[in-house]
C-alpha cells in the first residue's frame, strides 16, 4: 500500500488537495496527513501500521470509541437485511422516539418532530429554509467563528476549516446570498439587539452553535442562549440551535440538556424553535437531523410548502448505528468521557505552563481546546488573536509520539469512553516534549 507520503502523492493526483474534506489536509500544522486503515477503541492505525491514540474521534461521532462491538453488530445485521430501501422503516421511528425521549428534561421536550438527513450541512440548511418559510423573511443572523456546514449562506466568517485556512468565506457564493447573512460577534447580545433594530421585520432566524466549538471551544456566557432565544422571539424570528457537534456528546441531551438540567447554570427555561443534530446521532455513519416545534416542522413537505428530501435520508444502516450508539451511551459513558477530558485538559495546561507557554484552555463540557494567548477567549477575534503558530510543532510532536490530535488549533479535542488509563497515559507521556516544542516555536 506504500507509506503515508506515497499515499498522499497518489491521492493528490486524483482528489483535490488529496483530501475529501479540507481540515484533513494538515495545511496549518504542516507534515503529511496520515492515511488510516483501521480504528478500534481509542486508537487509529495508519497505512504504515503505526497506531495512534486518537483525539479526533472522527470529529465527534466516536463517543463510545471506534468500532464499538454493539454498534458494529447492529450495522452488520442491518446491512445483511438491505443497504437502502428508499422507503419508510420501523427503525427510523424508533430512533426518532429515542432521541425525543432522551432530550426531554423534567417533562419539557427539546422538540416535537424530527426529520433525518445525511449530513450536518443538510440539517442546518433545512433549518434555515424552515425559518424563512415560517416567517416569510430572508435575513439570517450567525456568529463569527461558528461553523454550520458548507451551505452557501452559512460560510461567512465560518469556523472549522474556513478558519483554519484563514478564509473570510467562500468563493462561489453569490453576493446576494452572502448579503442575507448578518455575521455578529459571539456572546454579544447588544450586537444582536442592534441587528434587530437595524433590520426591522427582516430577520427570519438566528442560528448559533449550542456551545461554540469550531473556532476553538468557546462556550456561551452564562444565560446567553436563553437571552438570545428571548430576543429572537421578541422580534418574530426563530432561534435555531446547532447541536451537530455538541448533541449527545457533551451529555445525554446535548448542551441544551446541560442547560435545561441546570448542570450549566442560568440556562434553563427555554427551548429552541429548531435544533440540528449530527455526528453522534449516526454513531459514525452518515446521519444527521433537523428537529423542532410541531408548527414549524410540519411546514416541511409533504405536509407543508417547505421542500426537503433525500435518497439516503434515514438510511437503515446509519439508523441502526445511531440507535445502537445512543442505547449504549448511558450515564457511565458520559462520566468516563468527562473524566478523560479532565485528565487530558489538566495535564495539557500543566505541561504548557511548566514549559513556559502562555496559553488558555477553553472548555464546554467534555470539549476543550487550547489557545496560545494570555487571557480567555470570548469571540472569534479573540480566538484569532493568539500565537497560533505554536500549535503546528506541538501537534507534530504529539503525532510523532503516537497521539493523533485535530490538525488545527481551531478544532476541539475529542475523547471517548474507550480512552482508558493506558490510552490516557500515552497522551500524558507525550505532552512534555510537545509542550517544549510549542515553547521553542
Ligand atoms: N454544525 C456544526 C456545529 C458542526 O460542527 C458541523 C461539522 N463539524 C456541521 C454543522 C456540519 O456537519 P457535516 O460536516 O456533517 O456537514
What layout of secondary structure does this protein have?
Elements: H1 4-12, E1 36-40, E2 43-46, E3 51-54, H2 69-81, H3 90-102, E4 104-105, E5 108-109, E6 113-117, H4 120-135, E7 139-143, H5 161-164, H6 175-178, E8 181-184, H7 189-198, E9 203-209, H8 224-234, E10 238-243, H9 254-260, E11 274-277, E12 288-292, H10 294-297, H11 316-328, H12 331-354, E13 360-364, E14 367-371, H13 380-384, H14 391-400, E15 403-404, H15 421-440
Bound molecules: 4'-deoxy-4'-aminopyridoxal-5'-phosphate.
What is the terminal separation in angstroms? 34 Å
Spatial order of the strands in the main sheet?
6-12-11-10-9-7-8
**Uncertain regions: pLDDT < 50 for 5+ in a row?**
none
What's the CATH superfamily of the largest domain, by name? Type I PLP-dependent aspartate aminotransferase-like (Major domain)
Describe the sheet with the most strands.
7 strands, mixed
Name of the CATH architecture of the largest domain: 3-Layer(aba) Sandwich
* Total count of strands: 15
Strand residue percentage = 5-15%
Bound molecules: 4'-deoxy-4'-aminopyridoxal-5'-phosphate
Q: What is the molecular shape?
A: globular
Overall pLDDT metric: 97
- Topology pattern, helix = H, strand = E: HEEEHHEEEHEHHEHEHEHEEHHHEEHHEH
Query: Helical content, roughly?
Result: 25-40%
* Structural category: alpha/beta
Number of helices: 15
Amino acid at each position: 500500500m506504500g507509506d503515508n507520503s506515497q499515499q498522499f502523492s497518489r491521492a493528490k493526483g486524483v482528489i483535490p488537495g488529496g483530501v475529501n474534506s479540507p481540515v484533513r489536509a494538515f495545511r496549518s500544522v504542516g507534515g503529511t496527513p496520515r492515511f488510516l486503515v483501521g480504528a478500534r477503541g481509542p486508537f487509529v492505525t495508519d497505512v504504515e501500521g503505526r497506531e495512534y491514540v486518537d483525539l479526533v474521534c472522527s470529529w465527534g461521532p466516536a463517543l463510545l470509541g471506534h468500532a464499538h462491538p454493539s454498534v458494529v453488530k447492529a450495522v452488520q445485521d442491518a446491512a445483511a437485511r438491505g443497504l437502502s430501501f428508499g422507503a419508510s422503516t420501523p427503525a427510523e421511528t424508533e430512533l426518532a422516539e429515542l432521541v425525543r425521549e432522551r432530550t426531554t428534561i423534567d417533562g419539557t421536550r427539546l422538540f416535537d418532530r424530527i426529520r433525518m438527513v445525511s449530513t450536518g450541512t443538510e440539517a442546518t440548511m433545512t433549518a434555515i429554509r424552515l425559518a424563512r418559510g415560517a416567517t416569510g423573511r430572508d435575513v439570517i443572523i450567525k456568529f463569527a467563528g461558528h461553523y454550520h456546514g458548507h451551505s452557501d449562506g452559512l460560510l461567512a466568517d465560518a469556523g472549522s476549516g474556513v478558519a483554519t485556512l484563514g478564509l473570510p468565506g467562500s468563493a462561489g457564493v453569490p453576493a446576494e446570498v452572502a448579503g442575507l447573512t448578518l455575521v455578529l460577534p459571539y456572546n454579544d447580545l447588544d450586537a444582536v439587539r442592534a441587528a434587530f433594530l437595524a433590520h426591522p421585520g427582516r430577520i427570519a432566524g438566528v442560528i448559533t452553535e449550542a456551545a461554540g466549538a469550531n473556532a476553538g471551544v468557546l462556550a456561551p456566557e452564562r444565560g446567553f442562549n436563553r437571552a438570545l432565544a428571548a430576543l429572537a422571539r421578541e422580534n418574530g424570528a426563530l432561534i435555531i440551535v446547532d447541536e451537530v457537534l455538541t448533541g449527545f456528546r457533551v451529555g445525554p441531551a446535548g448542551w441544551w440538556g446541560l442547560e435545561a438540567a441546570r448542570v450549566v447554570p442560568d440556562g434553563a427555561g427555554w427551548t429552541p424553535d429548531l435544533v440540528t443534530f449530527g455526528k453522534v446521532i449516526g454513531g459514525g455513519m452518515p446521519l444527521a437531523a433537523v428537529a423542532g416545534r410541531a408548527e414549524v416542522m410540519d411546514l416541511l413537505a409533504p405536509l407543508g410548502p417547505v421542500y426537503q428530501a433525500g435518497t439516503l435520508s434515514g438510511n437503515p444502516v446509519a439508523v441502526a448505528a445511531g440507535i445502537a450508539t445512543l442505547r449504549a451511551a448511558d450515564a457511565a459513558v458520559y462520566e468516563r468521557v468527562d473524566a478523560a477530558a479532565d485528565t487530558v485538559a489538566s495535564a495539557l495546561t500543566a505541561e504548557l505552563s511548566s514549559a513556559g507557554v502562555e496559553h488558555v484552555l477553553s472548555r464546554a463540557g467534555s470539549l476543550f481546546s487550547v489557545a496560545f494567548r494570555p487571557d480567555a477567549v470570548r469571540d472569534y477575534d479573540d480566538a484569532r488573536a493568539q500565537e497560533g503558530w505554536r500549535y503546528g510543532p506541538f501537534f507534530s510532536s504529539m503525532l510523532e509520539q503516537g497521539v493523533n490530535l485535530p490538525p488545527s488549533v481551531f478544532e476541539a479535542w475529542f475523547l471517548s469512553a474507550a480512552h482508558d488509563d493506558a490510552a490516557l497515559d500515552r497522551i500524558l507521556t507525550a505532552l512534555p516534549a510537545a509542550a517544549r516544542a510549542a515553547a521553542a516555536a
